Amino acid sequence: MTKQDLIRNFCIIAHIDHGKSTLADRLLELTGTLTEKQMHAQVLDSMELEQERGITIKAHAISMEYKAHDKKTYFLNLVDTPGHVDFSYEVSRSLAAAEGALLVVDAAQGVEAQTLANLYLALDAGLEIIPVINKIDLPSARVEEITQQLVDLIGCAESEIYKVSAKTGEGIAELLEAVVTLVPAPKGESDSPPRAMIFDSTYDNYRGVIAYVRVVDGSIKLGDQLYFLQTGKTYNVEQIGILRLARISRDALHRGEVGYIITGCKDIRDVKVGDTVTEFHKRKDVQALPGYQDPKPMVFSGLFPADHEDYESLRDALDKLALNDASLRYDPETSVALGFGFRVGFLGLLHMEIIQERLEREFDLNLISTVPSVRYRVIDTKGQAKWLSNPVDFPDPGLIDHIEEPVVRGQIITPKEYVGAVMALAQERRGEFVNQEYLDMTRVNLVYDFPLAEVVFDFYDRLKSQTRGYASFDYEFQDYFKARLVRLDILINGDPVDALSMIVHEDKAYDWGRRVVDKLKDLIPRQLYEVAIQASIGSKIIARSTVKAMRKNVLAKCYGGDVTRKRKLLEKQKAGKKRMKQVGSDEVPQEAFLAVLKID
Amino acid sequence: MNPLLNTDKESVFSLYIHLPFCVRKCPYCAFYSSEVNSPKQMENVILGILHEAEFYASQSPWNERKIHTLFFGGGTPSYPRGELIEACMAGINQLFDFSENPEITIEVNPGTVTSQKIASWKKAGINRISLGVQSLDDKTLRKLGRIHTAEQAVKAWQKLRDAQFDQYSVDLIYGAAVSNPIDTWVSTLDDVLGWNPDHISAYGLTIEPDTPFYEQVLEGIQIKVDEEIELAQYNLARKKFADTGYHHYEVSNWSKPGHHSHHNVSYWDGTAYLPLGPAGHGFDGNRTRFWNHSNTEMWLKSVFERGYGRDDSEELTPEQQFEEAVVLGLRMVDGVEERRLEEAANHAGRTWQSDALKKFISNCYLLRENGILRYSNEGIVLADEIEAQLTG
Predict the structure, then answer these.
(1) CA B276 to CA A403: how far, in whole Å?
(2) CB–CB of B206 and A528 under 8 A?
(3) How far A566 CA lies from chain B's nearest CA (Å)?
(4) Does A556 lie at the interface with B, CB-CB under 8 angstroms?
(5) Given A382, B31, B47, B169, which is the most exposed site by the fewest CB atoms within 10 A?
(6) Torsions phi, psi for B148 (to 5 deg)
(7) Beta strands in A6-48 (DSSP E)
(8) Is A433 helix (H, G, I), strand (E, B) or coil?
């Protein structure tokens, strides 16, 4: 038996809150990888925001030693996966680093949309699936029903499903044994030139970029000169090793092993998730491992500092976040209304929210974000295709042959009583019905194709409120399809407010324009003259509202000579004016830019 | 130069005496007063006021100056027994210099007038009555939470008129949400003009924080009329007063020629004023504003421990002096010497000639004539917004 035969690489896939992290903790504890003292709850999620949102954003890996019933000591590598659809490419790379997956389902909640999405990814990656029902200790556990769901879903036998409680530890020992017996040992050639796949990377202030890798063939040794196939960069191995709670350095990593490499590289963009690493001299002899993709931002939004003096701080903050997030894209953008800022590309909505929240929380920035946009493909009359992700760049309609928009396939799992409401919502969002199936007596999986633009925008909140929080949603990019899209502009007293422009479907433009101008009417304070708010497509006005002129604004009296009070009122009024953004000769409060994001 | 302004500012001061007693607080009123008033408590306050007066009577600048005006405000200064006012005035008379024949006003609530009180006020040397009529429509009075009816107001007016004080003023409030707000306002205006008072104050109802009305507005109850109607009411008043020979001299004040309230004007023209009693505000005529404790017990405690009931004060910065010069100067309908505003701006390190100023002059919200800057009829109703821009 070779060393490779004693390695098991696996991951855990689950819907949010189905207990992935607690299960990981329990495995680490049971294998003695962590003593109870080292045991912090949910050690794999280290960022504050991750813990709050109960999701794992950045993947890590951890090695355990486990003495199995056959008396042999196995090396179990748990590769953690980011749970959310926005990071599905990263999930797919993490899965590609493993041979097996624990599919964890909550005993009370049952199969959810993310369970399905992740399961499909794991099956695509050819992983051995071990179905697990967690939280069987809950009073509300419906173990029998959920068992049936899983049997129907993956076609396993009832007896193949592991029933555990990560909280109490029940069933965990059996599950560990199953990892050894069911997950195949890694394959790969020991004599071939080395090949390793980067499944994640982080930035360390002292050591630079740390690449997390799975060695597929051969070995990578300390001091090797490495070659990165996608980027064409060369770096020397300064440190190499495996991952426990800390990094444990070794002389080499061999085929089948999971670990880390430090090369002194300072730019995370050189160390791309999914890239193949080999030895420089053998670079001509190896082929890249399959599955690499450049991270593609799907959602774009302008981010502007509320106080224009914070522009430099915003740039520094984005630079810092990008050290650790190769998928974050940003370019300077100038808005007439909002001044200097950045056009930022995100993997998805959650990614966008996380970045915005981290900018505000960790860097103490007060930001104004513009309506998120997806990336459209514009084919001009000469047949040339161009990308379009900022409404400001929308070309002259006369030069456009047609526009294509990204479409995703969405899974919505909902209790059956909400099917009507969900369908109505899907209709409203230009969803095209694909399929519907009952997961059990009470729950339905609805499959729709949606324009991505329709789901990036408060779709999830609406879905949750329509189904009293019961529905879950996940999606996967399909393709680009032709659509009738127009740019809707908002004008204040005739001046277009670039930050409020958006690209919408022609059929929705009127309704949307109406709602935006009505909302703005309530938010723009009255001024000395009437303020006209208009929505237009090209030169055609499609909706209008008016903020009436201020008619009377004079303090009637000062009680008992209290001039101080009068002056404080003046100062308050002046402070209010400072928070306004000047649009032409009109003042627009910051809230107006935020409020259009929350129109229902 | 505005003929109304006090030309002798350096040698005089105004005295404000706050009597914090009310039968019942009006729901719009933001000024300090109490509804719980034992005769003993009222006496204590008067004693405190005299004590405080005695303290200031030996302090500069008050000991070097003559009394320009004296004003009993509140609260309801017509609520306590007449003898208390007499005693108060007797004490004050001995402490300050009354040789300039000052204007001495008492605010009177029509629901509290008696012949006995009128006799006492006369004896005390009060020469000007400011009657809080507010409206001559009972529905409006109820909406405003007043303790009196229209009929009581008429009777009070007659009684006071018969007593032949030197000058009479009437306070009115418009803007309360009632049915037929325009008609009831017109009829109140006509009736009051029929009385031919020397002076009229007409205040737009203002919803002040920390008042019952404020809470009611938050609850969605309509207290005020639509802004358009309030503006129409103001314009009606301006028209009627002008037609009957009243001079509009301050945002909310009109008078027969020569009968403006000297006390009111002293707040706007930089005259020093001294407060006695809880919650009063004062100004030293230079750059210090100060105010008394706005709680009777705390004020009394301070007065009897230290001699005066001052809570706090502020020294105006050049920026604040500039803001005040604009706000107070332009409040006078006849305007302000622009040179003074320019000086204040320069002192604050600013330029007075701003784009905002040019805009307001070119659109005629502000009029500039012979070095005087004043609001037009269209400008004055937007004064707060315009001033925020001029000083922004």
Answers:
(1) 77
(2) no
(3) 8
(4) yes
(5) A382
(6) -120, 165
(7) 7-14
(8) strand
- Provide the residue count of chain B: 392
B31 part of contact set with chain A, CB < 8 Å = yes
Strand ranges in A347-425 using DSSP code E only, listed in sequence order: 367-369, 373-374, 376-380, 385-388, 400-415
A88-96 and A113-124 helices cross at what angle (nearest 10)? 50
Answer whether B392 sits within 8 Å of A574, measured CB to CB: yes
* Size of the A and B interface in Cβ pairs below 8 Å: 97
Provide the ipTM. Answer: 0.91
Give the integer Cα–Cα distance in Å for A402 and A379.
5
Per the DSSP assignment, residues forming a β-bridge with A495 are A492
pLDDT of A20:
85
Cα A120 to Cα A14, A101, A116, A167, B78: the distances in Å are 12, 12, 6, 27, 86
Cβ atoms of A25 and A41 closer than 8 Å: yes
The size of chain A, in residues, is 600
Q: A573 — contact with chain B (CB < 8 Å)?
A: yes
Out of A336-340, A440-444, B269-273, the most confident range is B269-273
Q: Name the more confident of B78 and A578.
A: B78
Chain B residue with minimum CA distance to A565: B281
Angle at A192 between CA A189 and CA A194, to 5 degrees: 100
Which residues of chain B have a CB within 8 Å of the CB of A560?
16, 18, 31, 73, 275, 279-281
Q: What angle do CA B119, B95, B275 make, to 5 degrees?
A: 80
Q: Does A575 touch chain B (CB under 8 A)?
A: no
List B52's β-bridge partners, or say none: none
Full-model pTM: 0.70
pLDDT in tens, A542-577: 999 999 999 999 888 877 788 999 999 999 888 877
A255 secondary structure, DSSP code:
T
CB atoms within 10 A of CB A75: 18
Residue A162: pLDDT band with limits 50, 70, 90: very high
A299, A352 Cβ separation under 8 angstroms = yes
- Whether the CB-CB separation of A158 and A147 falls below 8 Å is answered with yes
Which residues from A are below 8 Å from B382, CB to CB? 528, 550, 552-554
Amino acid making up residue B146: R
3-class DSSP assignment, residue A480:
strand
Residue B106's Cβ-count burial label (10 Å; 0-12, 13-18, 19+) is: buried
Inter-chain touch A553–B385, beta carbons under 8 Å:
yes
Q: Contact A60/A47 with Cβ under 8 angstroms?
A: no
* B161-171 b/e (C-beta count within 10 Å ≥ 16 → b): eeeebebbbbb
Question: Smallest Cβ distance to A567: which of B203, B324, B381?
Answer: B324
Residue A54 binned pLDDT confidence (cut-offs 50, 70, 90): very low
The residue written with tokens 């939004």 in the block is A301
